[in-house]
Amino acid sequence: MRDSFEKIKNKRDILNTIKLKNREEYISTRLQKKLTELNTLNQYNISNIEISIYKPNTFEKILNQILLFKIIKKFLNIKKTDSQPNFSFNTNTIDKKSVKYKFNFSHLSSYLQKKKLINKDNDEKKNNMDKTITKTKKTILNINPKQNQLPIINSFFPLMKAVDLYDTLIVVAETGAGKTTQIPKYLFSMGYGRLGQIGITQPRRIAAINVATRVALEVNSSVGLLVGYVIRFEDCISNLTKIKFMTEGILLREIINEPLLLQYSVLVLDEAHERSIFSDILFSLLKDLNILRSDLKLIICSATINTNKFSKFFSYAPLFQIPGKIYSVEIYNSKESEIDYLDAVVRTILQIHIKSKQGDILVFLTGQEDIEIVENIISKRSKLIKTLMGQLETFPLYANLSYNLQNKIFLKLPTNKRKVVLSTNIAETSLTISGITFVIDSGLCKLKYFDYLAKYETLIVSPIAKSSAWQRSGRAGRTAKGICFRLYTVDTYKFVLRKAIVPEIQRIEIDSVILILKCLGINDINNFEFLDKPPVESVFASLEHLYILGGLNEEGQLSKLGRYMCEFPLKPSLSKILIISNFHQCVEEILIICSILSLESRIFNYNHLNNVDQKQVLKKFTIIPKSDHLSYLNVFREWINNDFSINWTDRNSIDAKIMFKARFIFEQLLGLNQKLLNSQKIGINKTNPTMIIKCLLSGLFMNAAFFYSANCYRLLSSSTVVSVHPSSLLLNYNTKWVVFQNIVLTNKEFINVITEVKIEWLIETAPIFYNFKKHMKNY
């Protein structure tokens, strides 16, 4: 095999014309590089072991490095024999008489897996494993009688056997099977916790917290001991933690610091069908890691999944099907399309409440704003009928809701009350709410889309996919027969809804992903093996944006600034703003603003206010130049001066939940900033905000717009005309130039979180990006 590489190396001119498979080229290059690094490291470690400068507890880590070196060396030096696959390099550019070489990874994987199974299937080991699984199952049956009613218990023996035999396993489980809570417990009971941590990823923070709490309760432990969780800006684990729930972004950041993830013995990627952008990157990275670490078990779990696509991507990994216990669900579609879907939701809720004697209701809405509108209407109308049919009690559920309020959806109400859960698509698969008999499916959800031509991201209300419609209806049949009311026609389901949701990586901005891949040394983004490749235009737009921000150099390599940007759990633009603030003596101010912006939620609560009262609230926190960003800063400072009072937030129509979250994030970012940049908590005079705005421009200069007409501006990036959002301080305040945080698309395009700027500041901040001469002619 080594001779094969030497012959190819001597033909560089030929090699340039050879089209190797992306995965083969990527893996072989990474393995050779890793082999060289480990060789140098191991020689150094061994020489130091001889003179005994290491402590005893470091020997295990050194031995793991030596073992990894041997594995890679053996992997790259496989010799051709009759019993092994034929490694030939097939290309028409080489003379037919010359020897053909090819590093055939699919054959190699099949051979290694076959060899591994032969070794594992000796009688003694097989019998011992079977006895262990059987004994463990009996123990579980005795300890957890309630959990043993879940369908997954019937698959315990074959599931644990499959985990033992295969390095990668795809588990397909129907709704209600118990995969999310029970598989981590089963793995721990089989002893995988003694080999390292059992890591489980969830696509949402709320799911990671709730599942960790549930599993901890089932194993008679407190959260943070045997079972813990880690989400952005918050961790609840200890040295005793063996079952660790986390969001996908957390695991991705752990790979940056520890590419081999030696702390884990098993990784479970749950809810894989949701296809978040971070999960897609994890699929690719963990697929390669599985080659280097044969001791690492990788389990892909999902309620619904494109099984053939996933199995093929993971080198035809085996599929394991777990049947669920779903009761029959009657589905009723609207005869005509609903013009006002919120009104249709309210009418359906009240009709169910009047005509049906029992059963809770789960309603799927698009977002927080719609949830609050429906909640207010229901609370008023239900008072008129509560004496006849009992009382309706509504419970909101969305991502930015506090954990205590989220947890209320699991409370059991008295028999004279009916629970109505108003949720976003969070409740499709991530959470299970007992007692739900009725589901109202609006057929809509909010999705982010990135316009790579205009270079901005919008949040669009879109029709759901058929897979989501199936998931939503299944929520009504968990404990008994249920009914699902779909507020869209049968024809809409058949001809409008797509089969599956578009993966995030193909529709949103991928700046953060590219920055992480660059940190991992993966520079050839276009040839990186994705499960679904992002659009080439989106990749180029992100590379351009990162270069302009200073995260990449002219060769597309990660810059020093980019490395620091990658360390902050923020969008690259916000990370850049925060780093720049360290050099302009406004760290504290920028930390506060970034903390609030990272939540992507509004801090003012206008639902109960009319337009006059709303203006009075905004006026309290307004300064010149007018700025929503600076108003956030002023609100936070006034809140501090009032001792973080909830009464103060209520009086000023400010969302206390968002403020407390922002305070927590501020403290986390402050500590991280001091650790990375050795910066102190330095502020400037709040009456001189120019420097703060210039720092904001260092990351937002691409989001500039100039005056077009009353409450309308034209974007510099695309010449699109946009409107000022009604919640902005700059509504009815016309100025020549502004920058904005995001664009919201409803009935028209709105810019939101806006700051008044001067053209000179834009030129000073980004002279290369904008050629303002043509714009300045009119001013």
TrEMBL record:
Segments traversing the membrane = none
**Alphabetized InterPro entries for the sequence:** DEAD-box_helicase_OB_fold, DEAD/DEAH_box_helicase_dom, DNA/RNA_helicase_DEAH_CS, HA2_WH, Helicase-assoc_dom, Helicase_ATP-bd, Helicase_C-like, P-loop_NTPase
The keyword Cell membrane is annotated on this UniProt entry: no
Please list the reactions this protein catalyses: ATP + H2O = ADP + phosphate + H(+)
The main enzyme category here is: hydrolase
Give the source's domain of life in one word: Eukaryota
* Chain segments annotated as coiled-coil in the UniProt record: none
Q: Which UniProt keywords apply?
A: ATP-binding, Helicase, Hydrolase, Nucleomorph, Nucleotide-binding
Domain spans labelled Helicase ATP-binding = 160-323
Q: Where in the numbering of this chain does the Helicase C-terminal domain appear?
A: 348-521
What CDD domains does this protein map onto?
DEXHc_RHA-like (cd17917), SF2_C_RHA (cd18791)
EC number(s) for this protein? Answer: 3.6.4.13
GO molecular function per UniProt: ATP binding; hydrolase activity; RNA binding; RNA helicase activity
Stored PROSITE patterns:
DEAH_ATP_HELICASE, HELICASE_ATP_BIND_1, HELICASE_CTER
One family name in Pfam for this protein: WHD_HA2
Provide the family line. Answer: Belongs to the DEAD box helicase family. DEAH subfamily.
PANTHER family from the UniProt entry? ATP-DEPENDENT RNA HELICASE, ATP-DEPENDENT RNA HELICASE DHX37-RELATED
Name this protein carries in UniProt? RNA helicase
Which lineage?
A: Eukaryota, Sar, Rhizaria, Cercozoa, Chlorarachniophyceae
